[in-house]
Request: fold
Amino acid sequence: MSDLHFVVMNRIQELFSKVRVQVGRGGAPHLHKPLLLLLALGRCWNGEERMERFSVYDRDLSSLFARFYPYALEHSNTHYPFGRLEGDGLWEIEDSASLKRTSVGHLWKSQLFQRDIHGGFTADVFAALTQDRSFAFRIATDLISRFFDVSQHASLFAAVGLPTSWEMTCDSETFRVGDSESEGKEQNRKPNLASLSIRAPRETQGAAHMHQNGLISYLNSLHNVGASGANALAESQALNEYFFEIYEPFEIVDAICDVLTAGTDHVVVLTGHAGDGKSTVALDVFKRLSGLSPVAPLTAALKEVEAVADPANGGRLIHVLKDMSELSAAVRLQKLEMSFGEPGSWLIVSNTGPLLNTLREFSERRQALPDIESRILAYLNRPYVKDDIESHILRMFPKDLLILNMARLDNVSLGARVLTRMINHTGWAKCNACEAQSACPLLLNQRALKATEGGAEERVRWIYQRLNAYEQRLTLRQMIAQLAFAMTGGMTCKEAKNLVLESPSEGIDKGTGGLEGILFSEGFFGYRNGKPVQEAGGLTAVQLLRRQVFGGPIAVDFERELLSSNGNGWATLPEWLKPLSGRWRLRGQESPGVQWRFAQRRMLYIFGQPIPSGKAAAETFWATFLQSPRLRDFDLWSSQQELIISYGERSRLCRACLRVLLEIFSGFSAGQFRHDQERLYLTLRRPDRAVIQPTQFVMATLSFQDFDLAYDVSRRLPLLQFRNGVVKLPLTLPLLDFIENRVSGDLGSELARIHLAQLEWFRAELLRVLGDSSDSFRIQLLRAGIDGQVHAHRYLLDNNRQVLEVDQ
Reply:
C-alpha cells in the first residue's frame, strides 16, 4: 500500500470519527446519521451503486428506525440525516445547490420524492470503501461500537447486509519488498487498517471473556436514561426475544378478536396517546388471528397493512393497519375508504387527530353523516368496561365502527403487573453461569424484589393509583421505562461484574456497594444514595413523583426504630438488603443523615414485609408515606370493581361525606353543629368564601337518610348518591382523602379548585332536583351564636298580614 493511499484512508477514517451527532435529553445521541451511514456501508460491502434514490433510503432507513431507533418513527424524519451528512464531508446529494431547505438547513422531504433525488458517499470515500472491504467493515464496527448497545450488534450487522463476523489474514505478498531499505520503511510505518485481522466488533471480542445477560441490555433499552431507548416501541418489541415474557395482555384483545371474527364486517379503530399500547394490542391481535405463538417474536416487522384469512368465515380477509397516523392525508382517506368499501373487517391503529380529520373528510364526501366529529368525540370519551363492546359501536357508516380509546382504559394494575413479569423473567436464569452471580448488584435487586412475593407490585400499584388520581395518567410506556430503570439503575452486566470482582469485601457484601447505587426503591422514585438522579428526571413518572416528597418522617415511634440497631418492630426486609440497611442506618444516625433516613423509609415502603403483630403499624406507615389515608381502600375497590366495605363502615363513610359537605356548603365547621345533626343545609352563601357569614339563609334542607353510597364500575369510582341515584357525586381519591382528613381533625387540608367546582355542581344539581318543593311561606336561617354553636331558626311568613312568625 502506498503512502498516499494510507493517508487517504486515515483521512476518511477521521471523517467518520468526527461525524456530528446531536445529543438528546438525558445525553443519549440521536442515531439518525449512524444508521444511514451503516446502510450505505452495507451497500458498499455488497457491491451496489454509489448513488441511490432517496425513496430507497427512506424505505430502508424507516425499517432500521423501527427495529433499532423507534423514537425517530414518530416524526418520519429520514430526510434529516440524508441532507445533514453532506456537511460532514462524506456525503454527496444530487443537485444539492438547487434544493430547498428549511431555516435550520433541513431538506424538504416532499421535494426529494418529487425530483427523485439520489445521494450517497462522495466518489473518493466510495472508492476507498469498495476497493478494500475490510476498511468498510472496520468503519462499520467502530460506528456500531460507539452508538449501539452490545445486545444489538449482531442483529444490526445483519440488518444492513454486513457479516456478523469476518476473518482476514494479511497477504504475505502485500508486505514483500525488493530491498532491505524499503523493508525497513515498511516496518516503521503505522499499521495498515486494511491488513488487520478483523473478527467482530470490539465489545463482542471482550464479551467472549465476560458473561453477558441480554435481558439486562434489554431492560436498559426500555428507558432513555443513558440508553438509546431502542426497544421502547412496539415496532421493535415485536422482534425482540425478551418482550413477550414482560408483555401483560390487555383485556380488550379478546373483545377485538371476537368482533373481527364475527359473522358481519366491522371496522375497529384503536386510538389514544403515544405509549398507551395501541400498536402492542394490534400486534397481539395479529398474532392471534394468524395462529402465531403468543410468546415467540416475529421474524420480520409488521408491514403497513397485514391481511389475515379467517378460516372460520370461509377465508374472509381481516386487515390490520398498524398506524394510519404515519400516512399522508390522501393515503389515510384511501385506506379508510377501502376499510368501509371492501369485503372483510379491518383493525386500524391511529392517533386521535389524524383519525378525526380522516373520518370527517370521509363523511363529508358522503354528505350523509352530520355532526360526525362531535359524535366521534363522545365515543372517544367513553371508558371501556369489560364485556361492554356494544356501547362503543357507532352505526353511521357502511360498516359498524367500533371505537376504543386506549387513554380511557385503566392501566394502573396492568403497569404494576409488568413489574412482576420483569422480576420473574426466565432471562435471569442466564446469570447462574456468571462467576459474580452470588453478589451481583443486579441479581441482589431482583432477588430482594422477588422475596416480597407480590408486595413490590402492590406498593408500585398504589403509587400509580395516587399519580393517576392526583397528578396525571401515565401511559404504559412511561411506567415500563420507570420500572426498567428502577430494576437496573442503568447498570450493565460488565459494570456489575467489575464491581463484585474488584470489591475487597466477602460474600454478599461484595455487591452491596453496587446495590447501593441501583436499589429499586431509590431508582423508582428517581434517587440514588438518597439524592436525586439528574438523568432520571427525563422519565415522566419520576418528574411527577418528585412533585411530592415521598419518604418523609412518619411518627416519633417509627423514627426511633428507624435508627435503632434492632431495626423496626413492624416489618422485615429481605436478607439481601440487610447489609445495605445496616449501612444506611449508621449513616442516618449522623447529623447530616437526612438523605439516608429518607432512603430507609423508601426501602421499607417497597421491600418491608409486615410481621403478624405489625399490621396496624404497617397501615399507618403506608397511609403516611403515600400521603393518602383512603388510597388502599380506593385501590381495592378499583381492582374488585365494587365497594367492598361493611354496612357499618358504609354508613360511617356516608355520614362523614355529608358532614364535610355541610361544612363546605355552609361555611361552618362540623363541630359547630350538634353531634346528632342529620341534615344537609344548602345555604345562600357568598361564592368567594372570603367573608365569614354568621347568619345564612337556607334554600333547602335534605335529610342524611336520603343519601347512600354506590359504585360506578365504568369510572371505577365510589358515588355519593341522592335518592337512589337521582343525583350522583363521584368520590375521587383527593375528595375521599380530604373528607378523611377533615373527619380526623386535620383542619389545614385544602381541596383543589377542580374538586370544589365539582361539589358546587353537586349542590346546584340538588337544588335543581328539589325545585319548588320547599314551602315558600317557610323561612329558615342558620346562625352561629356567641359560643360558636350553630342553630337553625325557622319562621313562617304570612304574606296577607305581612307578618313574620317564629315557627315553634
In short: The CA atoms of residues 664 and 759 lie 8 Å apart.
